[in-house]
Design a protein that fits this description.
alpha/beta; two-stranded antiparallel ribbon; 9 helices; about 15% strand; binds iron/sulfur cluster
C-alpha cells in the first residue's frame, strides 16, 4: 500500500506535526463522502493524493513504518490526512495495520476511519476486531460518523472513540483559503459564534456530549489540542465546510441503512424524505 510521510505539515489546522497520506485504494467506496464532498478530493491535497496513489510520490509501507518508528517518544502525528486504514476498500489489512501499530508504540497518533464496522457482515466484524486491538495497543483510531445518529451507533460498539460530521450551522463564519496552509480569517467573533450556536444540539440523540473541533472555530491546531489522539467518551464534531451543501446532503440522509453502500442511484436527502412524507400525510 503506497504511502507518503511528511515530517512537518504546513496545514494550518493540524499545525506543524508529521502527517501522512495513504493511497486512494484504501478508501471504502461505500463511504458517504466518497466522490461526494470529501475534503481530500479537492485542492492541493487532492493533487498530492493523486501523486501518491499513482506512485509518483512517497514509498512503501515498510519505509513509512520505519519513519514512524523513528519519531521521538510521545510525538503527536496524523495518520492519513487523505486515505484510510491500510487495505483496499472496505477491508483492513491485518498485517499492514499490525506493522503500523508496532511502529507507533510510544507515539501519539490521530487516525480516522470510514471503513464499515456496523452489522453482521464478516468484513465489518473483522474490522471491529482489528480496530479494537489497535486501540488497545495505543493506536487510536477514531470511527467517523456521518451524523450524530450514526455517531451513537458507532459509539455503542464500545471499541474506539467517535467523531462526526455536523451541519454547516455549527461552523464559525470565516473567509476560507483554498490552500490550507493559510489560516481562515474569521468573519464573526467567538462571542457571536457561541451565541449563534448555543441553541444547536450539544448532545447526540442518545445523550453523548458533542464537542466541536477547536481548530474549526479558534486558532487551535491538532498540535495544541490532541484530543483525537485520546480515548474519550465525548464525540468530536466537524462542521461541514467547503462543499458543505453537498456534504450535508449526503451525510444527513436517513433512508439508507448505515454502512450500506452510498454509491447508489436512488439516494434521497433528508429534505427529500421529509417532503415525500409531507405529501403522503
Ligand atoms: S479535535 Fe483537536 S486533535 Fe481533533 S482534529 Fe480538532 S484540533 Fe485536531
Amino acid at each position: 500500500m503506497k504511502n507518503h510521510f511528511i515530517p512537518v505539515s504546513q496545514n494550518a489546522k493540524t499545525g506543524p506535526i508529521p502527517v501522512s497520506i495513504t493511497e486512494r485504494a484504501s478508501c471504502w467506496p461505500g463511504c458517504a463522502l466518497y466522490e461526494n464532498g470529501c475534503y481530500a478530493e479537492t485542492g492541493a491535497l487532492a493533487m498530492h493524493w493523486r501523486r501518491v496513489s499513482n506512485g509518483l510520490a512517497g514509498g512503501s509501507w515498510a519505509e513509512f513504518c520505519a519513519r514512524i518508528a523513528a519519531l521521538k517518544p510521545g510525538r503527536l502525528w496524523r495518520y492519513a490526512q487523505a486515505g484510510d486504514l491500510p487495505g483496499c476498500g472496505a477491508v483492513i489489512d491485518d498485517t499492514l495495520l499490525q506493522m503500523l501499530v508496532a511502529a507507533n508504540a510510544g507515539k501519539r497518533v490521530i487516525a480516522f476511519t470510514h471503513k464499515p464496522v456496523l452489522g453482521d457482515d464478516p468484513v465489518a466484524a473483522e474490522n471491529r476486531r482489528l480496530i479494537a486491538a489497535a486501540v488497545e495497543a495505543g493506536f487510536i483510531v477514531n470511527l467517523s460518523a456521518n451524523n450524530p445518529v450514526h455517531a451513537d451507533e458507532l459509539a455503542a460498539l464500545g471499541i474506539a472513540p467517535v467523531v462526526t460530521v455536523l451541519t454547516h450551522a455549527y461552523a464559525r463564519s470565516a473567509i476560507r483559503h483554498r490552500f490550507k496552509r493559510h489560516k481562515d480569517v474569521w468573519s464573526e467573533t467567538t462571542g457571536e459564534w457561541r451565541d449563534r450556536t448555543a441553541l444547536l444540539p450539544q448532545h447526540t440523540p442518545a445523550g453523548r456530549r458533542i464537542a466541536v473541533c477547536p481548530a474549526t472555530y479558534s486558532d487551535a491546531t491538532c498540535k495544541s489540542c490532541g484530543a483525537c489522539a485520546r480515548s474519550r467518551d465525548v464525540v468530536i464534531g466537524f462542521p461541514a465546510h467547503g462543499a458543505w451543501r453537498q456534504v450535508e446532503a449526503v451525510t444527513a440522509a436517513r433512508d439508507v441503512p448505515v454502512d450500506e453502500g452510498w454509491a447508489f442511484r436512488d439516494h434521497r436527502t433528508m429534505a427529500e424524505v421529509i417532503a415525500a412524507e409531507a405529501q403522503t400525510a
